[in-house]
Design brief:
101 residues; mainly beta; five-stranded antiparallel beta sheet; two-stranded antiparallel sheet; 9 strands; elongated
Length: 101
């Protein structure tokens, strides 16, 4: 998976197409990501004990990583990452502007 935590991404398809947000969590085993403010579901919590309150919570739920694309922080364009080896370290590079991310 080429998307990591804290990357800025844009949604490519679905009900939230075109929205931008920060990646809060990645799940490589399932190929999903949680993006801030995108794919929000309404969850109804029922009070289980006396004294607790019922609540309606809005929460981001996971979406497939193939539906989002990373946005370059320098040029601001959505891009797939290229990789360059420098000093034995693998760096992610923007294909549009060549900036190391």
């Amino acid at each position: 998976m080429n998307i990591k935590k804290n990357d800025q991404v844009i949604v490519l398809s679905g009900k939230d197409k075109g929205k931008k947000g920060k990646v809060l969590e990645t799940m490589p085993k399932t190929g999903k990501v949680i993006v801030e403010g995108v794919n929000v579901a309404t969850i109804h919590n029922k009070a289980r004990k006396q004294g607790e309150e019922s609540a309606i919570i809005r929460k981001e739920i996971p979406m497939y990583a193939c539906k989002v694309m990373r946005v370059c922080p320098k040029c601001g364009k959505p891009t797939r990452p290229a990789y360059k080896l420098a000093d034995g370290k693998k760096d992610r590079v923007c294909k549009k502007c060549g900036e190391i991310i």
